[in-house]
Design brief:
The structure is a homodimer. Chain A contains 11 helices and 2 strands, in the order H-H-H-H-E-E-H-H-H-H-H-H-H. The first copy, chain A, is mainly α. The first copy, chain A, folds into 2 domains: about 100 residues, Arc Repressor Mutant, subunit A (Orthogonal Bundle), CATH 1.10.10.10; about 140 residues, Four Helix Bundle (Hemerythrin (Met), subunit A) (Up-down Bundle). Chain A has a two-stranded antiparallel ribbon. In chain A, a hairpin with a 3-residue loop joins strand 1 and strand 2. Chain A binds a DNA duplex through helix 3 and helix 4.
DNA sequence: TATCGTAAACTGGTAGACCAATTAATAGCG
DNA sequence: CGCTATTAATTGGTCTACCAGTTTACGATA
C-alpha cells in the first residue's frame, strides 16, 4: 500500500516551480531569450504564469544554480547560459539525476573511483597516506566483527578520492555516492560476510598507492568494483 | 580594476543563507542531529538565528536538494543524510564547485569524456551514429571557414556522450562543461586555426565508434584532449 | 482506567506588502 | 542644443500575515 501511494505521488501533477522552469527553458531554447538578454521581472512572470512570485523566485534560484541564469540584485535576471542548443533537455536531465537508472550511477561511480585511485597514486602526500591508513584500519576493525561497515568502507574510498587532489571529482562523487548507498540500504543489498575480502582488496589498493603505482591502483580498484557492477547489472 | 572588485565581492561577508547552512551542517556533523531526527521548525530556526524565515527556507531547500534533508509538507523537516561523518565538508565542497580550480575541472571532463567515448563505441545505435554524423558535418562546415566553432564542437561531443547511454555521465558533464566553456570565453582562450586538426581527430573518433572499437575510441579521444589538458596545466 | 474523538497548537506552503538599490526619464542649467 | 542632476518608476530582496494540512494534548465516555 505504501508503495502504491508512493507511486501515485511520483506521478503527481507538475509542481508550480517545475512548470515555471519548463516555461523559461522553452523561452530560452526556442530562441526568444538569448544569452545576455534580461528576463522579464519576477512580478511580470508571476502574473504571466498566474503563480505567486515565491514560485518564480524559487525557479530562478534553481536555474541560477545550474548556471543558466544570473540574477543581479536590484537590477534584473539575465540569461547567462552557453550555446542555446545545448539547453535542450539540460534542465530536466540534471533535475532528474535521482531517477537515473541505477546501473548508470554505479557505472559512473566506478569510472570516477578508478581514475581517482590512479591520480591518488601519483599525487598522494604523506598526510594522505596517513589518512587513508587510518580509514583502512577503521574498516578493518568493523570487518573483523563480520559487519558490513558501509560507512567505514565509504570513508576509505573518500580518503583516496581526496588524495587524488581533484576537488571536482570529489564533488561529483559526492553527488552520486550517497544515492547509491541509500539505494543499497533500501533494497537491502548488503555485502555482509564479504567484508574481509573487501578489506583484503583495500589493502592491495593502499599498497599500490603507497608505491605510487598508478596502473596497479587503477586496476585493483577496477577489480574491486567489478563484482558490484556485475551485481548491479543483473538487477536491471 | 574589475578584477579587484570581483575579489572583494568574493571575500564578502558570509550570506545569511550560508550562515544557516553552516549552522545546520554543524548541528548534524556534531551529532546533535542524527538521520531521521526532525529539524526544529522553520520559525524556531529563524528566531534562533535572528534571520528571516525566508532565509531559513532557502537554506533548507538547498540542503534538501543535496539529499541532506527531506521536508515533509505540513509536518516537518527531517535529516535524511547518509553516514554523518561524510557530511564534514560535503556541503561547502559541492557548493563551491564553481570555484574549483580549473585544471581539475578539465581533468574531470577528460576522464568522463574518454570513458563516454569508450561506452559509446560499445553501445551506439544506428540512430546515435546518425546524430553524431550530423554534428560532425556541422562542425566541419564551420571549421572550413576557419572559425573556432565552440558550439558545434560541443555538440559533437555531446552526441557521443549521449550515445554512451549513461545519463549520469551526461548529467555530470552538463554540470562541468558549461563552466569550462565559459572560462575559455572569458579568458579568450580560443583554438582558432586549430579547427581543421580538431575535425580530423573528430573523424577518427567517429570512425572508431562506427567500428565499435572501444579501445581506439578511448585512446583517440584521450589524445584529442591531451593538448587542451597540457595547455590548462600550464595556465595554473 | 483505558480509549477514542475533538479541538487547539504547530507545521510547512503561499501570497502580498514593504525595503533599498538600481535604472530610466525628465527637468533644469550651461 | 547638449549635458548633468534630480526624481520617479522598476528591480530583486526581505519580512509578515495568513492558509491548509498534521500532530499533539486533553477531556469525555465506556
Amino acid at each position: 500500500m505504501q508503495d502504491n501511494l508512493a507511486i501515485f505521488k511520483e506521478v503527481e501533477i507538475e509542481k508550480p516551480v517545475d512548470i515555471i522552469i519548463r516555461q523559461i527553458r522553452d523561452l530560452i531554447s526556442s530562441g526568444k531569450l538569448k544569452p545576455g538578454d534580461r528576463l522579464p521581472s519576477e512580478r511580470m512572470l508571476s502574473e504571466r504564469f498566474g503563480l505567486g512570485r515565491t514560485h518564480v523566485r524559487e525557479a530562478i534560484k534553481k536555474l541560477e544554480f545550474y548556471g543558466i541564469l544570473k540574477t543581479q540584485p536590484q537590477s534584473g535576471t539575465v540569461v547567462a547560459g552557453i550555446g542555446i542548443t545545448a539547453l535542450e533537455g539540460l534542465i530536466s536531465n540534471i533535475l532528474k539525476i535521482e531517477t537515473s537508472d541505477f546501473a548508470s550511477m554505479v557505472e559512473t561511480r566506478v569510472i570516477l573511483g578508478v581514475e581517482a585511485a590512479r591520480l591518488a597514486a601519483q599525487r598522494r602526500t604523506p598526510a594522505d597516506l596517513e589518512r587513508i591508513s587510518v580509514a583502512l584500519e577503521s574498516f578493518h576493525k568493523v570487518a573483523l566483527t563480520g559487519k558490513a561497515g558501509v560507512e567505514e568502507d565509504f570513508m576509505f574510498h573518500m580518503k583516496i578520492i581526496e588524495a587524488s587532489a581533484n576537488p571536482v571529482i570529489k564533488s561529483l562523487l559526492m553527488l552520486v555516492i550517497p544515492q547509491i548507498i541509500e539505494y543499497y540500504n533500501k533494497e537491502g543489498i548488503c555485502t555482509q560476510g564479504e567484508s574481509m575480502k573487501a578489506y583484503d582488496e583495500h589493502m592491495q589498493i593502499f599498497k599500490a598507492i603507497v608505491d605510487q603505482d598508478a596502473e596497479a591502483a587503477a586496476e585493483i580498484m577496477n577489480k574491486h568494483f567489478h563484482k558490484i557492477l556485475e551485481l548491479t547489472r543483473s538487477l536491471k
